[in-house]
Amino acid sequence: MEYFCVRDESDVDKMDIDEAFNWLDDKQIKHKLHSLEEMKQLIRVTRRSTERKPSEGEELSQSSMADIKEVLSNDNDLRKRVGSVYDELLDTIKTQPNWIYLYKYLSTWCGCDEIVSKLNEHKDELQRKDCPIVIAGETSAGKSCFLNLLLGEDVLPVSLLCATSIICVIHPISDGEAPYFTVDGQLKPVNSNDELIEKLKLILTARTEAETFKQADVYLHVPLVGENKHIVFVDTPGVGESEQMSDKVFEYLPNAAAFIYLLNSANAGGVQEDKLIQIFKKVQDLDQSSCLFSFDPTCTMLVCNKWDVIEERSKERRERKREFGMIHY
């Protein structure tokens, strides 16, 4: 029970030594103070720390978390409603086996051999709740470095000699859960984040034919997304480096909640048009296919990376001009 009601700083100023001592004792704050003024100062500091208003950045983060949670909730409700439509349609088809003409028509209209199989396939797709954020770009554009920034920790190797050679998918887990990762479905248990990072580096940068991997799935806590575990981050090798890897990247695009493409600004402006055209052509093909989901181009973000390198080069050129002077003809 609190012996003295403290509503604001003026109440602290009015305290006598017994009231101050009892207030601290009630809050279970241990101290060795004897001066009334020192006790009052401790009370002021305690109140300010417990009643501190969140910073602008914290408020923005909390607001973003709430927005993400609402979007995911709405998405889940929509999937359930669409799923119920599929259930009704499947029940109708199965209970009316004599509707052979409708059956054939629907199969032809969907561009498939068997409409029931196609509907079940789409229904299964609806149950997938992952919201992939796909991060792609040219080799050495800084994809892994950018993703490490989002993760809040240097999880992925970023050295120029350690360019990622396989798909890496980051799955958020709750704070306090033990991290782990799998490689092509095989579990790789670890005892700490440091051990995970060290082992993951060897896998992601493997180059020998005996160590050819396709995908690593990493499970660790990501403060940025909180408990929104449906959000996954997909780190990809350079688009266009190999047809197999490019196809793997394109598999994620129809279901991508966002597509972030990093441009290496230090490399002739950063835009390699042939690779961008390759991506846009593939997106167009996916949009015209019979897939349940299609890529939303409004969810694309182009990030110009390595501007600091350009600034440094510009500075060096200015220094050389000053050193040697400019010759005008």
UniProtKB/TrEMBL annotation:
InterPro entries in alphabetical order: Dynamin_N, P-loop_NTPase
Family annotation (SUPFAM superfamilies): P-loop containing nucleoside triphosphate hydrolases
Gene3D superfamilies: P-loop containing nucleotide triphosphate hydrolases (3.40.50.300)
Residues in Dynamin N-terminal domain copies: 133-274
Pfam families per record: Dynamin_N (PF00350)
Segments traversing the membrane: none
Signal peptide stretch: none
PANTHER family in the cross-refs: MITOGEN-ACTIVATED PROTEIN KINASE KINASE KINASE 7-RELATED, PROTEIN KINASE DOMAIN-CONTAINING PROTEIN
Record protein name field: Dynamin N-terminal domain-containing protein
Organism of provenance: Dreissena polymorpha (Zebra mussel)
